């Protein structure tokens, strides 16, 4: 009887801990969303633009987190899928009169197809070999974009009009673009959260933790690896489309291999496998380079690298892991 009571107490404690964690997540998410809705009405246009770009990078990092943090695959070419989404939207808007909302699913679908195509050969690769293949994608994309000048605008790129807010909203252009980016970000995070709670999420985590054990349990490694690449690319393509809306200009030099490396660094700093990791990583990617530029105009890259090293020394599991440890130390009422 004593053992049964102890087991019941342990089970009750586990359920209570899970409920407390869920309450924390819901409360933090609601507070963050409320702050996000309130922010553009209190900030100057430049700061609203910065927050809009944070949302764009957060969606791109969400896709990269799905691939690296949850599926355990490596990618040094995520910026290429971001560029594909951006150029798909730009070409559609520059040519025929395509409505802005239509460009989002088309850009996401094109990036998904490209990710699926590269995911098939990537199934047989892992580790450094997979990293080199994805890096090659980012390297050859820029000269490819410059070569097809009649479609992509070549080195000069394409200039596009930005979406204008409907009159009934009463919003300024920067606020309208911000809320478009916020809507895409919220939908993307909700989609990924639902995916990770499903059977697919459990399969991805099994794949990440131990491929051999996952295969024994019936997980189809090739299918889930390929789909992880495709879903990751789809989110990057959606982020690239919103980037085109916000910036109103695309050029090959905006999507060099440095973008892919910066995105991966931002995700690692934000926290691999954590839902908050992409948001924290996006804040890092957006604001830290400007801080580095202000600290040393001659060598901002050096300052940026040193800041990455400092953050990883203080928080080896990323900023999300550091925040989780700090919250865990807060005393709670029994």
Automatic annotation (TrEMBL):
Pfam families: BPD_transp_2 (PF02653). This is Branched-chain amino acid ABC transporter permease. It comes from Actinomadura luzonensis. The keyword Translocase does not apply. It is found in: Cell membrane. PANTHER family: HIGH-AFFINITY BRANCHED-CHAIN AMINO ACID TRANSPORT SYSTEM PERMEASE, HIGH-AFFINITY BRANCHED-CHAIN AMINO ACID TRANSPORT SYSTEM PERMEASE PROTEIN LIVM. It is a multi-pass membrane protein. The chain crosses the membrane at residues 24-41, 47-68, 75-94, 100-120, 127-145, 176-196, 227-247, 259-286, 298-315. Keywords: Cell membrane, Membrane, Transmembrane, Transmembrane helix.
């Amino acid at each position: 009887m004593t053992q049964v009571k102890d087991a019941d107490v342990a089970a009750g404690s586990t359920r209570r801990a899970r409920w407390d964690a869920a309450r924390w997540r819901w409360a933090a998410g609601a507070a963050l969303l409320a702050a996000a809705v309130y922010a553009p009405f209190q900030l100057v246009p430049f700061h609203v633009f910065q927050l809009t770009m944070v949302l764009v990078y957060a969606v791109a990092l969400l896709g990269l987190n799905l691939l690296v943090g949850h599926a355990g695959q490596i990618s040094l070419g995520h910026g290429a899928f971001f560029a594909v989404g951006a150029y798909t939207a730009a070409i559609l808007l520059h040519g025929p009169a395509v409505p802005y909302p239509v460009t989002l699913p088309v850009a996401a679908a094109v990036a998904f197809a490209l990710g699926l195509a590269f995911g098939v050969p990537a199934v047989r690769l892992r580790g450094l070999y997979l990293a080199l293949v994805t890096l090659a994608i980012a390297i050859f994309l820029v000269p490819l974009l410059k070569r097809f000048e009649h479609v992509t605008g070549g080195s000069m790129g394409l200039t596009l009009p930005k979406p204008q807010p409907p009159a009934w909203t009463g919003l300024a252009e920067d606020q309208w673009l911000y809320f478009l980016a916020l809507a895409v970000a919220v939908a993307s995070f909700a989609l990924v959260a639902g995916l990770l709670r499903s059977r697919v999420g459990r399969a991805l985590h099994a794949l990440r933790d131990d491929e051999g054990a996952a295969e024994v349990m019936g997980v189809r490694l090739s299918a889930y690896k390929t789909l992880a690449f495709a879903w990751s690319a789809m989110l990057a393509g959606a982020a690239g489309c919103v980037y085109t809306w916000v910036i109103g200009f695309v050029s090959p030099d905006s999507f060099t291999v440095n973008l892919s490396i910066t995105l991966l660094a931002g995700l690692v700093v934000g926290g691999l496998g954590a839902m908050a990791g992409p948001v924290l990583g996006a804040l890092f990617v957006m604001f830290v380079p400007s801080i580095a530029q202000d600290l040393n105009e001659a060598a901002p890259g050096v300052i940026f690298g040193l800041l990455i090293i400092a953050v990883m020394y203080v928080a080896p599991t990323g900023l999300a892991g550091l925040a989780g440890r700090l919250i865990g130390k807060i005393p709670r009422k029994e």
